[in-house]
Amino acid sequence: MTFERMNEMAVEMDRGRAAIVELIHAGSVTASDVKRLRREFFADRQATRDEADALFALEASKALKCAEWTAFLVETITAHVVWDCRPTGVVNESQGEWLIARADACASINALATLVNVLAEAHRVPGWFLSAVRARGARGWAGVDMARRLAEAEMAEAA
User: Fold this and answer.
1) pLDDT digit string, tens, across residues 72-114
2) Which residues of 28-43 are buried (b: 16+ CB within 10 A; e: fewer)?
């Protein structure tokens, strides 16, 4: 990889994080915002850890979020944790700890949906991860019952 290409990639990553932070300040995420994020920033590359952190910060913010946001967050974070890191399909200890900490900071239905989706897609997770996700479901986060129904439907579809 050339030095120029590395610089281009760094600028793309900075722009991606900046676009996410901009949405926090705007106070809302529309369907066109999600479409733009998919098209301009994540269509042909993986999300970085900084961008994943920014996505969780947006989820934790008071910004109003459209229905398309949930799928985008779940898909992007799952891809980041399960498929973009090596070994593929494996969530290691530090990734699991990072993901649980970010979900706890959000305490939202979307964060729980992300945890459940990671469980559904990963081939291997730390031994404690499943019980940690179950514990989050029992904490009474807003919308947990709805998230359970969605996760069950997704898991049934995948089976």
Assistant:
1) 999 999 999 999 988 999 999 999 999 999 999 999 999 999 9
2) ebeeebbeebeeebbe
Dihedral Cα 147, 41, 12, 101, nearest 10 deg: 0
pTM attached to this predicted model: 0.82
Domain limits for position 116 = 3-158
What's the total number of domains in the chain?
Answer: 1
How many Cβ atoms sit within 10 Å of the Cβ of residue 139?
10
Output the CA angle 36-70-24, nearest 5 degrees: 60
Q: Can you tell me which residue has the tokens 């947990």?
A: 144
Residues in the chain: 159
Residue 102, C-beta contacts closer than 8 angstroms, at least 6 positions apart: 52, 53, 56, 111
Q: How big is the chain by its Cα radius of gyration, in Å?
A: 16
